[in-house]
Specification:
By secondary structure, this protein is of the alpha/beta class. The chain contains 16 helices and five strands. The protein has three domains: about 5-130, P-loop containing nucleotide triphosphate hydrolases (Rossmann fold); about 140-205, Helicase, Ruva Protein, domain 3, CATH 1.10.8.60; about 205-325, Zinc Finger, Delta Prime, domain 3, CATH 1.20.272.10. Strand 3, helix 4 and strand 4 form a beta-alpha-beta unit.
């Protein structure tokens, strides 16, 4: 499986051999759920149709889920039961692994599982545990760019490498999100279309695309550019509260990075639960700020958010004032 992305590694593992009664998918939210679903259902022989894909709520009890899995199949139906962030009684689930029901259980732990737990060891021993982390390291961006090109080709789109790289830099490396946006692109432009940069602009949330630029402008106290950028975002439909939330998230992560000992982007990303590519970009940008500056900016952003939510200030006015004060203007 050398050279494959984690999503492809997991799908390949799922597709090997017969359908397992349990799949424990351990890792961050990078794995497109639709790909998991299609991979699992494609293993079911035609005489097993019709199929059932059932999603249970996070607050479901193990007993409720086990009852579904042990329900006898009718008319060739095989149930695929999907449960995200489940709360499992370890001993009960370990016993179930020894005598599973006829349904297929898909457990998903975006934050990973504790390998010291007995049931996790048993799932791994039986080959039910699919472990794969998100793309990391210096080649992570290249791998995601290549993945976008391949996925687009499978949907009949021609996606030049240079355009793919620009898009991934704007959107980030969340494969689930990229997969969804590629599906929209294929429906909009159809088979055979050569994707250009201008085609992708509507698929980039304006606020997210401009957060790094706004942070740079705040560092350089470029009041005029800040006003122009924010005015453009508001004209494009960006909500003041959402833009404040994006900036708060950006500067919170920057402050955390500034307060931690020097580390590689990969090590820091793993520690913070962030992708190394994003961490590296913020690390580079953080060199323009001191911790005191970042704390002051965060304070102005949080005060603006509170003023909007309590009705003390109109959203746009609170946003403008916060950014000007954050820039020291």
């Amino acid at each position: 499986m050398k050279g494959l992305l984690p999503y492809e590694e997991a799908a390949a593992a799922i597709l090997e051999g017969k359908v397992a009664p349990v799949y424990v998918l351990s890792g961050p939210l990078w794995l497109p759920l639709q790909a998991i679903k299609e991979a699992l259902l494609s293993q079911t022989p035609p005489d097993m149709h019709p199929l059932v894909w059932q999603r249970v709520e996070e607050e479901a009890t193990w007993q409720e889920v086990e009852d579904i899995l042990r329900m006898p199949p009718f008319f060739g139906v095989r149930r695929h039961v999907y449960w995200e962030n489940p709360s499992l009684p370890g001993e009960s689930f370990a016993r179930y692994l020894e005598d599973p029901g006829p349904g297929v259980l898909i457990l998903r732990y975006p934050g990973g599982v504790d390998g010291r737990q007995t049931w996790v060891k048993k799932a791994k021993e039986k080959g039910y545990l699919v472990e794969a982390g998100p793309p990391a390291g210096r080649q992570a961006l290249d791998r995601v760019v290549g993945w976008v090109v391949r996925q687009a080709k499978g949907r009949g789109l021609h996606f030049p490498l240079s355009v793919s790289r620009w898009w991934v830099e704007q959107m980030g490396t969340d494969l689930d999100r990229l997969d969804q946006e590629l599906e929209k692109l294929s429906l909009l432009y159809g088979e055979g279309h050569k994707v250009q940069q201008k085609d992708l602009v509507p698929f980039i949330p304006p606020g997210e695309a401009q957060v790094f630029s706004l942070a740079d402008q705040l560092a350089q106290r470029q009041g005029k550019h800040i006003l122009e950028t924010v005015a453009k975002l508001l004209d494009q439909g960006e909500e003041p509260l959402r833009l404040l939330a994006l900036l708060e998230s950006h500067f919170r992560l920057m402050l955390t990075i500034l307060e931690m000992p020097p580390m590689t982007p990969s090590a820091l990303g793993e520690r913070l639960g962030q992708h190394p590519f994003r961490v590296q970009k913020i690390q580079n940008q953080a060199r323009r700020f001191t911790r005191r500056q970042v704390k002051r900016i965060l304070l102005h952003l949080l005060e603006a958010e509170a003023a909007i939510k309590t009705g003390k200030r109109l959203p746009e006015a609170a946003l403008w004032q916060a950014l000007m004060e954050a820039a020291g203007i």
